[in-house]
Design brief:
The complex is a heterodimer. Chain A is mainly α. Chain A has 14 helices and no strands. The chains are: A mainly alpha, B mainly alpha.
């Protein structure tokens, strides 16, 4: 915990906001950088979403309608890369930037300049990635997993893909290190680890996952690069290498990556549910240990993504049981959120609706995950739309809904105005109905055998694909409501109180709404009464 | 803020932050180099 660092009067000039473009380009302020992350994530969400619309338009009926198969494959590949690395991860980092210093009573992030650099690497990396659409050979089309030897067939865009992934990794690792340094060294006096808000806890654990997992991805794509250009044969069977090795290394990163995406969402709803249930979070300590257990176990389950490559029975059994084991701490969390609501004095404002949406629909995605964790039946599901249904239930209503719930929860604190509750509820219900029309039928067509990543399909899948596409367009349009709500809230509205929500607790709600440009220049004293737990 | 303006507590905190950042950065670089060397 930091010793109290009190800024004297001579620092008053820091409370004056910089103006113009320089405020954003050279910002070292955690709130401004958080805002830039969130705006960037929203833009990428719509770019990735536009690619999803192309996919759903093409799949509206069988046969080839709008795009050629190569471009379709580029759409599925880049949609995934943009949504994972451009939308969900930056949105989580944006929320962390905005909220963590305010939640722990710190004046800013530990390394403000590194924070600026972490952000500005992102637009550069995505310019590299998206520029591949205009190159000989087109954009990456071998899937976001970049499996060799297919990915090595990519044309001029290949090194751009690899360097984009490297830059994204560097940005994430710098962000993660900054978060760890902030929480470890900058906490206000009295803010012990077991008094930290759950959102902060989930982010510490996510940050450690990032430091452990992202270098593995970087190493894997570096080996791809040297295989392509420098004559190595890490993954080339003809040179003594093994293409399946790439899958092992990739998924050693890839499964912790799932938790890198989902844990911050868990943290957000752990803040929201107690507020609107007007009860303290049930089982705080067990939530912390469950989150840490999930993170730890995530490094021992990677091969459940690749049961069909042919591995020894002992390996299949190990990875099956390890996968089942993750359900235990996850079940603890679902139980605790439910128990927090039990006999609570509940109201259902938009953030709470989105949190309950996460609770129900993430659990649904988790259950289908358990199904495919069972080795023998995974052979039926592998590479079908059942998998697409599963990971989209986890990623969209499980993670995106959590992030959106967090935005609604903290938007009045950020802007000083209450958002339009009616529009918020419209956003929730249109999103919830459309997301289920979009993803639920994918279970049916997946079980019936429709393969993923193809632009054409057998006519027996036509009806469900039409319904799925209609759900997809409706979900895309629903997200415009969010943009309108945010713009309207920034421009004005009912004045938000400092506490914002009746049941809200925590240091961030002791600051004014909107908070001063530099929060907590004098560290607050944290006691059991003021701490979340 | 210029370095001259910092109090000793702020300087100490900045050094502590920098040490932690360097250690975690080296861990990340170690994983990156390690995974490649493992399969060399």
């Amino acid at each position: 915990m930091s010793e109290a660092v009190i800024h004297d009067d001579h620092n008053d000039h820091h409370d004056h906001k910089p103006t113009g473009i320089g405020r954003w380009l050279f910002s070292t302020n955690h709130k401004d950088i958080g805002t830039m992350y969130l705006v960037f994530a929203l833009i990428m969400f719509f770019i990735g979403g536009a690619m999803a619309m192309v996919i759903r338009a093409e799949l509206f009926q069988p046969g080839l309608q709008f795009v050629d198969p190569q471009f379709f494959n580029s759409m599925t590949t880049v949609h995934a890369l943009v949504m994972i690395f451009g939308a969900v991860m930056p949105a989580g980092v944006g929320l962390a930037n905005w909220m963590i210093p305010m939640m722990i009573g710190a004046p800013d992030m530990a390394m403000p300049r590194m924070n600026n650099m972490s952000f500005w690497i992102l637009p550069f990396a995505f310019t590299l990635l998206l520029s591949t659409f205009f190159m000989q050979g087109g954009a990456p089309a071998g899937g976001w997993t970049m499996y060799p030897p297919l990915v090595l067939q990519l044309g001029d865009g290949f090194p751009f893909l690899i360097f984009a992934v490297h830059f994204l990794g560097i940005s994430s690792i710098m962000g993660a290190i900054n978060i760890i340094a902030t929480v470890f060294n900058m906490r206000a006096p009295g803010m012990t680890f077991m008094r930290l808000p759950l959102f902060v806890w989930t982010w510490i654990i996510t940050a450690f996952l990032l430091i452990a997992a992202m270098p593995v991805l970087a190493g894997a794509v570096t080996m791809l690069l040297t295989d392509k250009f420098f004559g190595t044969a890490f993954f080339d069977a003809a040179g003594g290498g093994d293409p399946v090795l790439f899958q092992h290394v990739f998924w050693f990163f890839g499964h912790p990556e799932v938790y890198i995406l989902v844990l911050p969402s868990f943290g957000i709803i752990s803040q929201i549910i107690p507020t609107f249930a007007r009860k303290p979070l049930f089982g705080y300590a067990s939530m912390v240990y469950a989150t840490a257990s999930i993170a730890f176990l995530s490094f021992f389950v990677w091969a459940h993504h690749m049961f069909t490559v042919g591995m020894p029975l002992a390996g299949e059994l190990f990875f099956m049981y390890a996968t089942m084991a993750i359900a235990v701490p996850t079940g603890v969390k679902v139980f605790n959120w439910t128990a927090t609501m039990w006999k609570g004095s509940m109201t259902f404002e938009t953030p709470m609706l989105f949190s309950i949406g996460v609770l129900f629909m993430f659990t649904l995605g988790g259950f289908s995950g358990l199904m495919m964790g069972i080795t023998p039946v995974d052979f039926q599901y592998h590479d079908t739309y059942f998998i697409v249904a599963h990971f989209h239930y986890v990623l969209v209503p499980g993670i995106v809904f959590g992030i959106v719930g967090g935005v609604y929860y903290w938007l009045p604190k950020w802007t000083g105005h209450m958002y339009d509750e009616t529009l918020g509820k419209w956003h929730f219900w249109t999103s919830t109905i459309s997301v289920n029309i979009l993803f639920f039928p994918m279970h049916f067509i997946g079980l019936a055998g429709m393969p993923r990543r193809i632009p054409d399909y057998s006519t027996q899948f036509t009806d469900w694909n039409m319904i799925i596409s209609i759900g997809g367009f409706a979900f895309g349009l629903s997200q415009l409501i969010l943009v309108w709500v945010v713009i309207k809230c920034i421009r004005g509205g009912e004045k938000a109180t400092d506490e914002v929500w009746e049941g809200a607790h925590g240091l961030e709600f002791t600051l004014s709404s909107p908070p001063p440009f530099h929060s907590f220049t004098t560290p607050p004293e944290v006691t059991d009464a003021t701490a979340h737990s | 803020m210029r370095d001259d303006d910092k109090t000793s507590a702020e300087k100490e905190l900045a050094a502590k932050n920098m040490r932690l950042v360097i250690v975690l950065g080296l861990v990340a670089v170690g994983f990156y180099v390690g995974i490649i060397l493992t399969y060399m």
